[in-house]
Specification:
By secondary structure, the chain is mainly alpha-helical. It is about 70% helix and about 5% strand. Helix 2 crosses helix 3.
Amino acid sequence: MIFYSKMIDDYRKYKFSAISIKKEIASRFRRFSKEISKSNTEALESMLNFFEMNDLSPEDNLGVKSERTNKRINAVIAILKNIEKHQTKPTTVMLQSLFEETIKVEKEEETEILDFGTPKLITENEELVYYKQKYDQINEQHFCLRNEITGFLNKVKIEKRAFGKNYLLLNLSIKDFEKFRKKNDV
């Protein structure tokens, strides 16, 4: 009820005028009006605004014969030609050169035949022997390094001071120290 009274008040604010229109055209306009807006007034107002904003008249021929339309079409054509000339063509040329270079590289790769030779087949026992030898070799290296580090640490003595912090003293000649560093890549 409140909505209805508000709607009536809104209509009372406006002054309406009657226009004589043929019945078929009026029903056609009402159908069109329902598709584009809420009321006949809004539909008619939208149509008038469109014609005024675009500087058009219902008698205007929107075909190519209109000088103004021709100017707009020519402007669009000029913009498209400019885009093609300054953006599309250089990009196309760059892409084509890249593709040609890629094709050349692929052809060169196809012509090169890499020969890795025939693989040497080994038995399971030979493989086990190989890995056992590598394991023993790594264990020996580990054992030697451990002995060297133990010998190195045995030459380190703690010097106690009456005042201040204690420090470590390494009883090793400079030549032996450099030899140890070079041998162990330190």
